[in-house]
């Protein structure tokens, strides 16, 4: 054996996978919680565990008509697990919502009664609030509208024979359940109905949950009940890292509630990060628990740097570009110069939107609560119309791609709809009219770049495409020139959605493509939360409380700039989560994405205080900090 082989630690966690295999025994399954930090190869351990079940117990399970349930966080994660188990039908791999629906579908009467109870309680609560509140306020109007819609739903319940749910869709039909209802119903049924627990364990004698720290706490609590009641015939495997819990509905302090009978395997190695990053994330984690990691013995040393800059109102983009050049020099990695070769993590989407230059379009739409999800996954119909119909046409036309232009026009334009061509007295004339509509659109670029509003007006005037419902009123307003929401009658303002769209339409058309690239993951930017589970060679973490809007996370306290509030101190004393804890975990997640080098950029009110704090905490050495005062 060579010295290198003796010193190598890369196989140090192999016994953990064997330990897990021991728990996955069909004759005596045992529940377990796998403690494993960032980059420790949780996906690989999960895939190994599944393949072990298939080899050892696949036949027996198949004969009994049983499957192995696997819950992961995203559809992409489901695809990855399925790929690693070669899409074997023994495994039912799904997201939490699909899994919950799979269990409750068919229990229509029970679902109806659950909804009746839930709606009645909600209405009662709203009525009490309304009785206490003031009439005529916006809050009162909103409450009354919620009471009316919930009452309508309650009144219709008895006419609904079967309920429906679409995990990836809008769920707008009267019989459809929304995402949180599906989770709540499933958790309640499991917790309260013994039959449901028998059904669950009968169908899935093993249930493995990845990212369990962020799995809905009510569901985890319900599954704890199942694991206890069916001990010896059902094995629940929770895989996760408590330090990476970043969503509010995950279960706090799950590790403290694990029953003594559960297995508690723990992985030590970080396969992803260079040695210096592992030392940093260990220091960040140290005050929280004892699960510290080792880097692989063959890992790079890597680089970490903190750049502290005074808080400024503008010019962050230039500052961050200059920092990338500094990183390129000190890491001798030229790719830092190329923004697209780096992952730049902002705390919130609007910070990325501002840096990438699609803020005019994005900011007003993001204000509308019900639109956020659609805006972020690119499915919001009003914006989708621009990204999926108008932009491809403009791009194809600009690059002379006649085939694509013809394809888009044939499939999307009412001018070339079969009926329009059939009704046209002269089809050749109809084709000419279509061409002149496209020409009119493209001429908008002759005098520089048009705004989305100008483009929309042109599309509407020439009937180039059918407008989605949401844009129809905007087009009507644009047509009559009444497009300035700021001068709208204060007594009768336009609906917030329309005002948001009118504001967004002021964006230059180029913002459409910048937005599209961001939401499709092609851009160099992402948010701190959005990169959970991912890894990148060069990571830049941007910390700027002055730009952040949410209240969930705040770096000032974590970095010593602000004192903890009375409620932070109370939370700590009572063992509850505080914003410092949440922010620490978020920081751990972001830093642990780096495969080669990491730059942390902090905009601080008081750079000297931040510098002293991170040096005193042992996170960075003085020479790793570049502070400007
Ligand atoms: N035993 C191993 N040997 C070599 N490389 C490994 C091993 N296990 C995992 N890796 C690699 O390490 C990286 C991290 O693995 P993975 O993404 O599964 O970690 P994770 O535990 O899910 O991390 P996180 O919780 O931080 O997202 C991946 O690039 C993976 O291919």
Describe this structure in words.
The chain has 629 residues and is of the alpha/beta class. The protein has helices spanning 3-7, 14-23, 42-63, 75-84, 96-104, 108-132, 138-156, 179-192, 194-203, 217-229, 275-285, 316-331, 349-356, 359-366, 372-377, 381-398, 402-412, 418-423, 427-443, 452-461, 472-479, 496-504, 510-519, 555-558, 566-573, 579-591, 607-616, and strands at residues 32-35, 68-72, 91-95, 206-209, 235-240, 269-270, 294-295, 303-310, 343-346, 525-527, 536-543, 594-604, 625-627. It folds into four domains: 3-104 and 182-270, Rossmann fold; 108-162; 275-347 and 528-627, 3-Layer(aba) Sandwich (Rossmann fold), CATH 3.40.50; 359-519, no CATH class. Helix 13 runs antiparallel to helix 14 (359-366) and helix 16 (381-398) packs antiparallel against helix 17 (402-412). The longest helix has 25 residues, at 108-132. Strand 6, helix 11 (275-285) and strand 7 (294-295) form a beta-alpha-beta unit. The radius of gyration is 28 Å and the shape is globular. The protein has 27 helices and 13 strands. Helix content is 49%, strand content 10%. Residues 36, 38-44, 241, 244, 271-272, 533, 535, 592 line the site of adenosine-5'-triphosphate (ATP).
Biggest sheet features: 6 strands, parallel
First-residue to last-residue Cα separation = 54 Å
Low-confidence stretches: 485-489
By CATH, the superfamily of the largest domain comes out as P-loop containing nucleotide triphosphate hydrolases
The tally of domains stands at: 4
Per CATH, which architecture of the largest domain? 3-Layer(aba) Sandwich
The helicity comes to 40-55%
């Amino acid at each position: 054996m060579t010295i290198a082989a003796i010193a190598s630690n890369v196989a140090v966690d192999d016994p953990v996978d064997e330990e897990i295999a021991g728990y996955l025994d069909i004759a005596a399954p045992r529940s377990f919680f796998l403690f494993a930090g960032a980059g420790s190869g949780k996906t690989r351990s999960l895939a190994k565990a599944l393949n072990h079940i298939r080899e050892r117990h696949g036949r027996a399970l198949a004969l009994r008509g049983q499957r192995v349930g696997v819950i992961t966080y995203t559809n992409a994660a489901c695809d990855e697990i399925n790929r690693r188990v070669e899409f074997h039908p023994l495994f039912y791999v799904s997201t939490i919502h699909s899994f919950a629906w799979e269990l409750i579908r068919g229990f229509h009467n029970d679902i109806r009664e659950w909804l009746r109870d839930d709606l009645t309680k909600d209405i009662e609560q709203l009525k009490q609030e309304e009785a206490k509140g003031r009439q005529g306020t916006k809050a009162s109007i909103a409450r009354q509208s919620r009471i009316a819609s919930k009452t309508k739903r309650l009144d219709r319940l008895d006419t609904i024979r079967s309920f429906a749910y679409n995990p990836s869709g809008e769920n707008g039909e009267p019989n459809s359940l929304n995402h949180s209802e599906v989770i709540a119903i499933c958790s309640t049924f499991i917790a309260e109905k013994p039959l449901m627990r028998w059904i669950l364990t009968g169908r899935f004698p093993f249930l493995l949950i990845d990212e369990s720290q962020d799995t809905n706490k009510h569901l985890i609590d319900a599954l704890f009940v199942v694991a206890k009641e069916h001990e010896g015939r059902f094995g629940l495997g929770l895989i996760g890292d408590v330090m990476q819990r970043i969503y509010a509905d995950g279960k706090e302090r799950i590790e403290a509630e694990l029953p003594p009978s559960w297995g508690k395997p723990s992985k030590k190695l970080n396969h992803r990060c260079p040695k210096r990053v592992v030392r940093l994330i260990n220091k960040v984690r140290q005050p929280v628990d004892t699960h510290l990691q080792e880097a692989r013995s063959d890992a790079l040393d890597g680089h970490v740097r903190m750049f502290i800059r005074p808080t400024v109102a503008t010019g962050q983009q230039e500052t961050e570009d200059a920092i990338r050049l500094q990183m390129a020099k000190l890491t001798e990695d030229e790719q830092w110069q190329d923004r697209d070769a780096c992952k730049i993590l902002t705390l919130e989407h609007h910070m990325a939107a501002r840096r990438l230059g699609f803020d005019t379009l994005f900011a007003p739409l993001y204000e509308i609560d019900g639109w956020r999800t659609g805006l972020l996954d690119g499915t919001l119909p009003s914006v989708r119309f621009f990204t999926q119909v108008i932009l491809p046409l403009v791009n194809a036309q600009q690059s002379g791609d006649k085939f694509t232009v013809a394809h888009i026009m044939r499939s999307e334009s009412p001018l070339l709809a079969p009926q329009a061509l059939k009704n046209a007295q002269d089809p050749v004339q109809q084709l000419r009219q279509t061409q002149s509509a496209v020409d009119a659109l493209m001429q908008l670029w002759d005098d520089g770049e048009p705004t989305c509003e100008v483009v929309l007006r042109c599309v509407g005037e020439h009937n180039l495409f059918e407008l989605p419902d949401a844009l129809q009123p905007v087009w009507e307003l644009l047509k009559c020139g009444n497009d300035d929401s700021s001068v709208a009658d204060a007594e009768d303002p336009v609906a917030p959605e329309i005002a948001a769209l009118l504001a967004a339409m002021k964006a230059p058309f180029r913002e459409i493509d910048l937005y599209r690239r961001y939401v499709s993951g092609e851009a160099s930017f992402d948010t701190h939360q959005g990169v959970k589970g991912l890894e990148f060679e060069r990571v830049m973490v941007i910390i700027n409380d002055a730009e952040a809007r949410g209240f969930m996370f705040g770096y000032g306290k974590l970095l010593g700039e602000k004192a903890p509030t009375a409620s932070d101190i109370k939370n700590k004393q009572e063992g509850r989560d505080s914003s410092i804890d949440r922010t620490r975990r978020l920081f751990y997640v972001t830093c642990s994405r780096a495969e080669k080098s990491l730059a942390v950029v902090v905009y601080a009110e008081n750079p000297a205080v931040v510098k002293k704090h991170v040096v005193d905490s042992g996170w960075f050495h003085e020479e790793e900090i570049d502070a400007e005062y």
